[in-house]
Specification:
This protein has helices spanning 2-8, 45-57, 66-69, 84-88; strands at residues 15-19, 25-29, 31-34, 37-40. The protein is an alpha+beta fold. The protein has a two-stranded antiparallel ribbon with strand order 1-2. A hairpin with a 5-residue loop joins strand 1 and strand 2 (25-29).
Length: 106
């Protein structure tokens, strides 16, 4: 995800996973107080442009974040007790530029 990639690049996160009372995870925008008002945090324009250029040049892995999909707190466990990362993003199927139908195209 752009949020996970941005954090690796040194940008501040703009969303977080919050565990609900029923134990399920919920993705929420981070809200900051600015002059007494609550304002949702959004990615910097420079971060968004860097991410898009990285996707076009192959510097950003395509198809999602395998680390996050391996976390059972964030993604439901797939069939046969395997994480979504193991089920849908097996290491042997990784392409030159990531995962999915465009994994070998920059």
């Amino acid at each position: 995800t752009m949020n996970a990639w941005g954090q690796k690049q040194g940008y501040p996160p703009f969303c977080e996973v919050v565990t609900q009372e029923d134990g399920l995870a919920n993705l929420q925008l981070i809200v900051d107080k600015v002059r007494g008002k609550e304002v949702p945090r959004v990615p910097a324009v420079s971060a968004f442009i860097e991410f898009c250029v990285g996707m076009m040049t192959g510097e950003v892995e395509k198809g999602g974040c395998r680390e996050l999909r391996a976390d059972p707190q964030l993604y439901a466990t797939a069939a046969y007790g395997l994480s979504q990362a193991e089920m849908f993003m097996p290491v042997e199927k990784k392409g030159t530029f990531g995962w999915g139908p465009y994994k070998d195209a920059p």
